[in-house]
């Protein structure tokens, strides 16, 4: 089967200036990947005729399949049709069925149609007109000099309807798309992207099918394995083989698949062991508790968080000794230990975790910004403390500390379950 190379183009200045996210491209790429179509480029271009034309000319040269969203509205800055006409030389005419549908759209809502709405019914000669059942502007499928162009509105629900009802069935039939592209995302925590890549380098260098890609996000990394095969079962088998090789090298850091999160895994393990957790937060100001209670059913394992930001609250509410604060300071292992142990004492939780440190941008108690102490205490066991030196912004330090807290909990619980 010929490999079909696609490009997704979003037309709209509102995307370029950050008013809206380009979620259309993400959704379209997922649908195409599921059909075994390679997406080589995502391109965003503003409402400028010259730039839209340039992006279309490049796509015409490079791609077999071009999917365009946006620029099909009734206003002067909706320039998709005009740009493609300059590229293709195709004439346009007003499609009567599309115009009737637009008029009906206004009539049903008791609104008066303005003359510029006629523009939305203009289609290219020879185009397949794609009915828009949830909006006004129809989509179009046009083949020009061997490249297939799909034009769709930028409104996500309209695009998805046209894509699902018309564009994907057309692609399946035209290119006899029988193969599938299957992906699996493996999440790792406690290992950096550079070390992960080093440990997997020989596998990455010989990758072909499945392919191996590494990704980094705040405080964790991931590996995406992607295989192409005639059936989902065969693709899964190919991925399984490579996954075994990956796990042999870095499996110690693995915490879950696909859409999971480390806090979800911590929640699951706490629930499995019927353990409860409480937190004492200074540096993080409640971010840890917020991350955990975002999970449905968190009340089954999480008793609460004591946010003790000032030294006085640490002492009078959380019970940190005055002597500890005076001699060691609040940014210290001694303070973190008492915070975690007192979180357990005050809530009767099985496990307590604490966060204290200097978020920055200035030093705190002579400690450099990014100095963080996290203590973990389980009833009947010795308290463990981890000291970090995080180089990031104030918000970055706090977010990374929270992620590190979940990492420590994950490995602690994993060790006790094993």
TrEMBL record:
Domain MoaB/Mog, chain residue ranges per copy: 7-174
Pfam families on file: CinA (PF02464), CinA_KH (PF18146), MoCF_biosynth (PF00994)
InterPro entries for this protein: CinA, CinA-like_C, CinA_C, CinA_KH, Competence-induced_CinA, MoaB/Mog-like_dom_sf, MoaB/Mog_dom
Gene3D superfamilies: 3.30.70.2860, CinA-like, MoaB/Mog-like domain
Domain of life, per lineage: Bacteria
Similarity field: Belongs to the CinA family.
Record-linked PANTHER family: NICOTINAMIDE-NUCLEOTIDE AMIDOHYDROLASE PNCC, NMN AMIDOHYDROLASE-LIKE PROTEIN YFAY
Protein name as it appears in the record: Putative competence-damage inducible protein
Chain's gene name: cinA
């Amino acid at each position: 089967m010929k490999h079909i190379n696609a490009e997704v183009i979003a037309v709209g200045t509102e995307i370029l200036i950050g008013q809206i996210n380009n979620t259309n491209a993400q959704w379209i790429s997922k649908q195409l990947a599921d059909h075994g179509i390679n997406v080589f480029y995502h391109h965003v271009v503003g409402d400028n005729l010259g730039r839209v034309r340039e992006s279309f000319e490049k796509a015409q040269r490079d791609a077999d399949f071009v999917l365009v969203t946006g620029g099909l509205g009734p206003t002067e800055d909706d320039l998709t049709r005009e740009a493609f006409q300059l590229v293709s030389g195709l004439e346009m005419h007003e499609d009567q069925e599309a115009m009737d549908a637009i008029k009906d759209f206004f009539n049903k809502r008791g609104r008066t149609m303005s003359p510029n709405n006629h523009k939305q019914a203009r289609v290219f000669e020879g185009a397949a007109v794609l009915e828009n059942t949830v909006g006004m502007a129809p989509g179009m499928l046009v083949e020009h000099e061997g490249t297939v162009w799909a034009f769709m509105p930028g409104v996500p629900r309209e695009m998805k309807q046209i894509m699902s009802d018309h564009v994907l069935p057309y692609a399946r039939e035209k290119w006899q798309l029988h193969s599938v592209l299957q992906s699996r995302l493996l999440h790792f925590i406690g290992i950096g992207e550079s070390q992960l890549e080093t440990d997997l380098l020989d596998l990455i260098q010989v990758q072909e099918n499945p392919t191996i890609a590494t990704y980094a996000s705040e405080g964790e990394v991931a590996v995406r394995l992607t295989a192409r095969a005639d059936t989902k079962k065969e693709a899964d088998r190919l991925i399984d083989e490579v996954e075994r090789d990956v796990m042999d090298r870095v499996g110690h850091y693995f915490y879950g698949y696909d859409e999971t999160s480390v806090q979800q895994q911590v929640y699951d393990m706490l629930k499995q062991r019927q353990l409860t957790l409480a937190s004492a937060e200074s540096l993080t100001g409640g971010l840890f508790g917020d991350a955990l209670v975002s999970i449905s059913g968190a009340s089954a394992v999480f008793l609460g968080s004591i946010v003790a930001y000032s030294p006085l609250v640490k002492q009078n509410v959380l019970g940190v000794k005055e002597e500890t604060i005076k001699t060691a300071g609040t940014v210290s292992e001694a303070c973190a230990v008492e915070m975690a142990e007192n979180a357990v004492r005050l809530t009767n939780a099985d496990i307590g975790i604490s966060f204290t440190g200097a978020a920055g941008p200035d030093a705190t108690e002579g400690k450099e910004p990014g100095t963080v102490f996290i203590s973990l205490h389980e009833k009947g066991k010795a308290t463990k403390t981890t000291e970090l030196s995080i180089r990031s912004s104030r918000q970055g330090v706090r977010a990374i500390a929270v992620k590190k807290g979940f990492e420590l909990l994950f490995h602690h619980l994993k060790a006790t379950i094993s």
